[in-house]
Amino acid sequence: MKLHTNYWIKVRLLVVSLAFIVLLTSCEKKYTDLTIQEELISNIQKLNQKVVDFENVAEKSNDEKKIQHAFNQARLEYKKIEWAVEYFAPDPARFINGPALDELEVAENTFFPPNGFQVIEELIYPNCSIENKEELIRKIKILNGNLKQIEQHFSAISISNSHIMDASKMEVNRILALGITGFDSPIAFQSVPEAAVSLTSLKTLISKMSFDNPQSIKCEEEITNLIDNAEKFCLKNTDFKTFDRVYFIKNFLNPISKNLVIFQKINKIEKSNRNSVVNPEATSIFDKKAFNVNAFIPSEEYQFSTEKADLGKQLFYDNSLSNSNTRSCSSCHNPEKAFTDGLKTNQSLSGSLLSRNTPTLTYASLQNAQFWDMRQLDLEKQSLDVIQNKDEMHGSISKAIVVLNTDKKYQQLFKKAFPKSKKIEEWQVQNALASYIRSLNAFDSKFDNFMRGDSNDFTVEEKLGFNLFAGKAKCATCHFIPLFNGTVPPNFQKTEQEVIGTPDDKKRKKISPDLGRYIQYQMPQLKNAFKTPSLRNVAVTAPYMHNGVFTTLEEVVDFYNKGGGVGLSLNVENQTLPSDKLELSPKEMKALAAFMKTLTDREYKLK
After folding, report:
1. How far is C-alpha 469 from the chain's CA centre?
2. Cα–Cα distance between 531 and 480 in angstroms, integer?
3. Residue 419: cis peptide before it, omega within 30 degrees of 0
4. pLDDT, tens digit, for every residue of 265-297?
C-alpha cells in the first residue's frame, strides 16, 4: 500500500513538473513570437520611454554630453521602427525625423514649422546652450506627442508580407540615399551607427515571416549574414567623414537588396503597388530599369510607349512648332551636348539674351517639377509652356496641327502612337514630345556600370570622389543618389528646391537678382530658390547654375566649399545650403570633380 502511494505521489509530481515546463514554454513562446505588429508597437513604446528619459535629462541636467547621449539613444531606438514609420505614416514621419526646414504648401501660401529629431539636433549640436533649454524641452514634448499618434496608427493598420517586403526594400534605399549620406544626421554625424540599427531591424522582419522551404531558409540565412557583416562594418568604421560608402553599398546594401527580391520570388509574396516609381523587381536602385517614367505622368492616357517617343523625336526637330518656322526644341536642346546648348543663356527670338541657362533634358522625366523655378509639374505642361513662350518659340500647337495633318508621314506616326484616336489633338503633341524626353534616361555611365557590377573600371580618385560626394562634401543631401537630382528618395514623390546664394557674376560681389520660385509663390522662404537639377551628364552640360555663372565643375566645387552665397559674404537670409565651409583639400576637390565626370552617359562621353 505504501509503495502504491509513493508511486502516485511520483506520478503527480511528474505531471506538475510537466505542466510547469509547458507553462514556461508557452510563456516564452508568447514572448519571443510576437507578431511583427505587436513587436512594432512594443518598440514604439520603448521609443516613447527613451524620449521621456531624454526630456528628463534635458530638464534636470546642463551636462552637454549627457543631453547628447540621451538624444542619440532615443534616435537609435527610432531607427528600429523607421522602416514602418516612413512606410505606413509618411506624412507625420516628416515631423519626426524630417529636415529642419519649413514644410511649404505653396498652393495655399502657407507653411508648417519643422519638428522632430533633426530640429532637436540643431539645438544641442555641436554645442548645447542653456539659453535653448526651454525651446529644447518644448520640441521634445512635441516629438513625444507625434510618436503617440503613430502608436495609435500602428494599432489600427494591417501589415501583410507584401507590405513588409516593400517596406524592407525601401528602407535599404533610404539607408543608401538618406542614411549614410548624413541627410538625417547633418550635425551630429551619427549616420553610420544609425544605419547599422536600421539594417538590423530588417533582419528581424525577414526572420518573423518564417517560410519553411529550403530555398527560403537559405536565402534568409544569406540576408542575415549580409546584415550581420554590414553591422560589424558600421560599428568598426563609425567615422562619418572616412566611411567607405563605395565598399558598403557594393558589398552589403546592393546584395541585401538583391536577396530581398529573391526572397520575395521564392515565397511568392505579392508585390505591393504602394511605391510606383521603383520597379519592385529591380535587384538594386542602380538597375538600368529601376525607375518607372510612368510614375511621373499626369494621368493614365499619357503612358509612355516607343511609338509615342518616335513621334516625339520627329516633332522635337520640327520648326513648324514655332511661330517663325525657324526654331525647334533642338535649337536650344542640342543632343550632342546632352540636350543643352553650351551657352551661359540662349538668345530669345528677338535677339536679346534669355534670363536662364538651358538645362539638360536627360533624366528630366524623373522629377516632379520642370523649369528652374518649378512652375510646371510635368513634361506635357513643360512643352506647352516653351512652345507658347513669346521669347522662346512663340508658337501654337493648334496651328501646327493644321500643318501636321497635311503630312502623310506624320499621319502614320500619330496613328501608331495613338491608335484609338481619329484625329490629331493638342494633348497628343504634348504627350509625344514628353515621351521622347522620357526616353533619354540611359543609366549607362561609368558610375552606373560600376555600381551594378558590370565593370570594375573605377579609379581610386573616383572612389574617393564618390565617398566625399555622399559624405564630407554633403552633395548627396540635395542631389540624391542615384538620380543625383532633388527628387527625394525612397518614395520619389517630391522634388526639392534650394536657396544656395548663387552670385550674379564671377566677381561674386552680389547675389543673382533672379528671385526664382518666389516669382510664382511669394513666400519669403522661396526668394532666390531654384530646383535642384540632376548632375547626370554634368561634365558635358556646362556652364552651371540657373544663370550659367560658373563655367567649370571646379568653380562649382569651390563655391560650395566656401559655403555658398553666405560663405562669400553675400546677404542671403534664407539660404538653405549650410553656410559652414566644407574644408575640402585641393586633392579632395579634384576627386569630387573626377567623380562627377563618371556620371556621363556613354553617348555623351567626352572624346
Report:
1. 15
2. 13
3. no
4. 999 999 987 778 999 999 999 999 999 999 999
